[in-house]
Amino acid sequence: MRRIVLVSLAILFAIVVIVLPVAAIFTRAFAEGLGVWAQAVTEPETLAALRLTVLTALIVLPINIVFGLCAAWAIARFRFPGRRALLVLIEVPFAISPIVAGLCFLLIYGAYGPVGGALQPYGVQLMFNLTGIVLVSLFVTCPFVMREVLPVLAVSGEDEERAALTLGASGWQIFRFVTFPNITWALVYGAILATARAIGEFGAVSVVSGAIRGQTMTLPLQIELLYNDYNTTGAFAAATVLALLALVTLVLRGLVSVFHPARGAAP
Amino acid sequence: MSLEIDRVSKSFDGAASVLEEVSLDVADGEFLALLGPSGSGKTTLLNVISGLIRPDAGRLCLDGRDITDQAAGARRFGMVFQSYALFRHMSVAQNVGFGLRVLPRSERPSRAARRARVAELLGLIEMEDLADRYPAQLSGGQQQRVAMARALAISPRLLLLDEPFSALDAQVRRSLRGSVRDLQRKVGVTAILVTHDQAEAFEIADRVAVMNAGRIEQLGTPDDLRSRPATPFVKDFVEQG
Amino acid sequence: MPILQTPIDAIRRRRRSPLPGLGLTLGVTVTFVTLIVLLPLSGLAWQLAGLAPSDYLFVMTDARTLAALRVTISAALLATLLNGIFGLLLAWVLVRYRFPGRTALDALVDLPFALPTSVAGIALVALYAEDGWIGGLLAPLGAQVAYTWWGIVIAMTFTSIPFAVRAIQPLIEELDPAEEAAATTLGASRWQTFRSITLPQLSPGILTGTGLSFVRSLGEFGAVIFIAGNIPYETEIASLLIVIRLDEFDYPAAAAIAGTMLALSLVVLVAINMAQTRLYRRLEGGT
């Protein structure tokens, strides 16, 4: 009896709080038929926003992977002064709210900030364009890869790498043949999380994007713009694209976690 | 190959030294054991020889050539780790062939030649039929033999063994001692074994260096050590075992 | 003797690694962290440093600022309370019971993490507006959620529920059923067992979960602004006020509010951390 009550309560909560909102997006988006939805999604501005979002993710992802791997390797394999401080700094973006993060970037890299101001005479502008969007996206996503890879590296220890070293392997060969196979799934897992976040980030990007229609609007920003324009059909159509991406992310995460030693069963 | 260790010292972060001016000669084809309690510096000495740790002072010479500044990877010393450190995601054959696979392109044998060499080594350790197994599917004794074969695959100039039997149960340990010694003779490689087990050192090694507190207390054949211990420490340590 | 042992342990740990790549990887890491994390943070610090204490107080005691802080903090507190209760319920059900759809429920919990916040925002509006499924049900009763303080609470609850569930779940998995059985044999009722045996052991997870949930709620922007109505003094959250000040080029005011919010988050995070250490020390003994 108790079991039934608790399970029903939990399911009810999940449906009302989590499922219904997502269902509402799709219902609203398709309320006027598939044709209207397709037309709304292929609006030039919406397509431009989608393109910018994808472009941002494509730039952010490789940088993130390289950084995450470097940071995890340095922190897991070496002892150096400031190691703990470095670890805290990398995790800081998780503790900072999106708007405050965006503001921080504006204050340093904006035209009135010390760095942005110094670069302005050379015609270099960092904020209110793609560069700004990429920079804040890097900020909000920077802990993900490192966070997944570091524990796996720490647990696997460095015996295998030392063995490879004595067998004559170069640094790159050690990474490629010995380290990488052990962290592949952790890396993929972190990269999925980072990509999802880069695609969906709203607050931080909204501060630095400049909100130029058709130019510096990412898809999450475009949703707000359309909504404020009373173009609800367009807004909900755009939202379905992102919601679908989120669902794909969840499925991918679930699949990958099966192979991720720290997240699921061992292969 | 003969190895000459000349007044090697090592301390970590300025604390009390772990090795104090250790000097030692190992003859070509000899099997030498470094015997001592934990903390005596024997593992550090082995790591200095392998190149994994840089000494603060002193020199290492291999056949008369100074190798002190040579990187671990360039020394071509086969090493068997206490944990074996087998590559978990590689099969037995891939583990054994790793040292050949990572050779620079100009020196790397062809795929077929590498395969033949791996087969030969697996024959030597009598594990031909387990070539496609993964380390996790092997017994402790089998893992130890794979680690040996992997170290021998690079035709090492020196074979270094760090407590290679400590993870095995007593029976397997005894039977493997003999086979390690046979393998070393067959290949003709100079070998250095680190152990805290007096019986093990005496059974395998031609000569034994008894270490204590970063110094070599006595160097001699097992018979020498038994009959003429040079210090009370050696006498105690030998009698204990 | 321990005096001798400690330094040797420390030495072992600090032994220089023979592995290659320290220069390259640390170089990349430090460069990245400096440009992407350290410099932006110092940007905020720099702006705040240029602010006289009287200016700071002027911004922070402004009626609109105070109202925004009150709205944000009170909504975040209620959302956190809801998340504490329902997070515990969901985590408990997911770990303790096997029922059809359990895996789906487990995956659903992560949906708010995966869903972009602006999508969440627009979804909640669709649901709670007068023409929405739930809003339509509430309207005849005279209750309104969308464009009110309650809407803010709903949005905050939605975006931060995963924190609570995921922080509590592992602790329930680690509970020793024998302890509960022991309590039962000693005559404790189910509720007594839960309250005096189970709950204390879950407290570190509940603390972390609600703490993270609170911090997330304080800073939540995307999901909230759609449903909040954003009426100054009534349903305007602190993050939005920062954006408004920025749009007015009032950088000092924006920095003052942002700095305050950041400080509040950090205080909460540090407090959780310290309380956690103490709780674990009590549960596991030793230092």
Number of domains of chain C: 1
**What is the CATH-assigned architecture of chain C?**
Orthogonal Bundle
Count every helix of chain A, treating DSSP H or I runs of 4 or more residues as helices: 13
Strand-residue fraction of chain C?
Answer: under 5%
CATH-derived topology of the largest domain in chain A: MetI-like fold
Shape of chain A: globular
The domain tally of chain A reads 2
Beta-strand residue fraction of chain A: under 5%
How many angstroms does the end-to-end distance of chain A come to? 38 Å
Radius of gyration of chain C: 24 Å
Low-pLDDT residue intervals, each spanning 5 or more residues of chain A: none
Percentage of residues assigned to helices of chain C: over 70%
Biggest interface, residues from each chain: A-C, 92 and 87 residues
The secondary-structure class of chain C comes to mainly alpha
Give the ordered list of helices and strands of chain A: HHHHHHHHHHHHH
Rough shape of chain C?
globular
CATH A-level architecture of the largest domain in chain A:
Orthogonal Bundle
Query: How many whole angstroms does the radius of gyration of chain A measure?
Result: 22 Å
The residue-averaged pLDDT of chain A reads: 92
Verbal overview:
The complex is a heterotrimer of chains A (267), B (241) and C (287). Chain A has two domains: 1-30; 34-257, MetI-like (MetI-like fold). The two termini of chain A are 38 Å apart. Chain A is mainly alpha-helical and 267 residues long. The longest helix of chain A has 34 residues, at 44-77. Helices cover 78% and strands 0% of the residues of chain A. Chain A is globular. In chain B, helix 4 (111-124) crosses helix 5 (140-153) and helix 5 (140-153) packs parallel to helix 6. Chain C is an all-alpha fold and 287 residues long. Chain C has a single domain, classed as MetI-like (MetI-like fold, Orthogonal Bundle), CATH 1.10.3720. Chain C is globular, with a radius of gyration of 24 Å. Mean pLDDT of chain C is 89; it is low at 1-14. Chains A and C meet through helix 1, helix 3, helix 4, helix 5 and helix 7 of A and helix 2, helix 4, helix 5, helix 6 and helix 7 of C.
